[in-house]
Write a structure and sequence with these properties.
Elements: E1 8-15, E2 21-28, H1 31-40, E3 44-50, H2 66-81, H3 86-95, H4 100-114, H5 119-124, H6 132-144, H7 147-201, H8 210-246, H9 248-258, H10 264-285, H11 290-300, H12 304-318, H13 323-330, H14 335-347, H15 350-370, H16 372-400, H17 402-405
Antiparallel strand pairs: 1-2, 1-3
Helix pairs in contact: 2-3, 2-7, 3-4, 6-7, 7-8, 7-10, 7-15, 7-16, 8-9, 8-16, 10-11, 10-15, 11-12, 12-13, 13-14, 14-15
């Protein structure tokens, strides 16, 4: 069966069955189809216009984010558990999506499924949004005849993963933003404010304090070279971003360095352990062999150090080691996690114990992020005090000594 044409959104005005004025939106492949659908609903349209989607901030231009995929999965799981057929569930979900790109993806999936393709294969045609782990879990659900249960597990997994990512982003954003603001304020003071004080100091007729002379020297450098500094920062930022994308070795080095940052590093450690445990629990519970589940967990760990360690665990399990023994050999997993894994293996409830490990470390991340402001407040105050307060003191030192000059 040929694929349906891509749907477009039309805005309409008209009268309903009772003759009352009405308006709304409808998705159709073209204007004629939109009119036909409205007539079927008993609506007499007086005006139909295609909704514009070419603007910079239109829904068509908005990228599809992982949180959108998590929401899509949750909707599908809820509808299928309620007895809604797969095709109808895809149609309903697509109709309720605001982002045009996601809407198009869902309709593509629906058309493939309607033509007889398995859902997992239809999803695999969009690898930038549905990775191998996602597709393999859906395939396991299809093979076992429990697709709605598997979608529910995937939705829970994606939701928890996105929540964890948001917490890590929050942990990194707050101190970074404060330091950047401090640097920007200091730069403005050096370029705009210090020169005004410098003109006043020339009339004093006395030697200025060494600290003030140092700040004036910085100001003169900043005034002359600020544009070069700005270009250098932009270029360094661009090259850093490119290196992260192009060089796996550089990206791995940055990952390992991030783990050594005070406070932030411990949050990243706990987040990687939580991701490992959550992914392994979800895949193992879905019937995926442990070796394959470990490979998926390595890719989802979010840090190069833990990725390499989990791949080492995978190699150990492949040669006949127990999971607990292989995890212990890496030397980076905490004793609590290792003992919980050992208990799970002995009791035959590994997926449940891994889920508890994930819950525990996710809670640690949550608490650490909530307390981050108070933990970093002294450090941030010192940074701002040195950057901004130091400049202010340097400018007022000669004024405090004005009595000696007189």
């Amino acid at each position: 069966m040929a694929k349906d044409a891509k749907l477009q959104t039309f805005t309409w005005k008209g009268k309903d069955k009772s003759g009352n004025a009405s308006k709304g939106k409808i998705d159709a492949s073209n204007l004629a189809m939109a009119k036909a659908q409205l007539r079927k609903q008993g609506i007499l349209p007086s005006k139909i216009t295609k909704e514009r989607t070419s603007g910079l901030f239109s829904s068509k231009n908005k990228p599809v984010k992982p949180v959108d995929i998590a929401f899509f999965t949750r909707q599908m799981a809820t509808m299928m558990k309620s007895g809604v057929p797969l095709l109808q569930g895809l149609e309903i979900t697509a109709g309720g999506v605001d982002k045009q790109k996601l809407k198009d993806i869902i309709y593509d999936i629906k058309n493939d499924v309607n033509s007889g393709t398995d859902l997992s294969i239809a999803l695999a045609k969009h690898p930038e949004h549905f990775d191998d782990l996602y597709c393999n879990l859906v395939n396991a659900g299809e093979q076992s005849g429990a697709l709605e249960t598997m979608l529910d597990r995937i939705a829970t997994y994606k939701e928890k993963l996105e929540t964890l990512k948001a917490k890590i982003k929050k942990a990194l954003t707050y101190p970074t933003a404060v330091i950047i603001v401090g640097i920007v304020v200091s730069a403005i003071l050096l370029v705009k404010v210090v020169p005004q004080f410098q003109d006043v100091f020339k009339s004093f007729g006395a030697d200025l304090p060494a600290f003030t002379l140092f700040v004036i020297g910085l100001s003169e450098i900043a005034q002359e070279w600020w544009f070069i500094f700005l270009i250098a920062v932009v270029i360094i930022g661009y090259l850093f971003q490119k290196a992260l994308v192009k060089s796996p070795d550089f990206r791995d080095s940055v990952d390992k360095a991030m783990l050594k940052i005070p406070v932030i590093g411990q949050i990243l450690h706990n987040a990687s352990i939580a991701r490992f445990a959550r992914t392994l629990s979800t895949t193992f519970a879905a019937g995926v062999p442990l070796v394959n589940a470990l490979e998926s967990a390595a890719g989802a760990s979010g840090n190069a150090l833990y990725r390499d360690a989990i791949l080492q665990v995978k190699n150990g399990v492949s040669t006949g080691q127990s999971l607990q023994s292989a995890v212990t050999m890496t030397g980076i997993f905490p004793n609590m996690a290792v003992q919980m894994i050992a208990i799970g293996e002995e009791a035959g409830s590994l997926e449940m114990m891994l889920s508890k490990v994930a819950d525990f470390y996710e809670e640690l991340v949550d608490n650490a992020v909530d307390n981050l402001s108070s933990l970093l407040e002294p450090l941030i105050m010192v940074v701002l005090g040195v950057l901004v307060g130091g400049l202010v003191i340097a400018m007022y030192l000669p004024i405090f000594q004005l009595g000696n000059v007189v």
